[in-house]
């Protein structure tokens, strides 16, 4: 009897993830705060695609603003 491996079903939508830190604070007179790391954690058993949306693109840039996070892994941005 031959067993077929079932492909995971692709689902679109929003899922909660963990982001650390939960808040970024930038100070105009302190350039050391201009670059900060944001870590995105994927607690699920499947990979996630992500996209960081920018509300003020003329004021800041997110490097690698889109990508994927492997199951139970994290990505630094």
Automatic annotation (TrEMBL):
GO CC terms of this entry: cytoplasm; membrane
Residue ranges occupied by any MSP domain in the UniProt entry: 16-77
Superkingdom to which the source organism belongs: Eukaryota
Cited Gene3D superfamilies: Immunoglobulins
This protein's name: MSP domain-containing protein
Localization annotation: Membrane
Membrane topology, from the record: Multi-pass membrane protein
UniProt main location, coarse: membrane
Presence of keyword Calcium: no
Keyword terms, alphabetized: Membrane, Transmembrane, Transmembrane helix
InterPro entries assigned: Ig-like_fold, MOSPD1/3, MSP_dom, PapD-like_sf
Transmembrane segments: none
Keyword Transmembrane helix carried by entry: yes
SUPFAM superfamilies for the chain: PapD-like
């Amino acid at each position: 009897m031959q067993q077929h491996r079932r492909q995971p079903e692709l689902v679109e939508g929003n899922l909660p993830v963990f982001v650390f830190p939960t808040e970024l604070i930038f100070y105009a007179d302190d350039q050391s705060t201009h670059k900060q790391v944001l870590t995105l954690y994927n607690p699920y058993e499947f990979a996630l695609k992500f996209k960081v949306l920018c509300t003020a693109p003329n004021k800041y840039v997110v490097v690698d603003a889109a990508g994927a996070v492997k199951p139970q892994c994290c990505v630094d941005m």
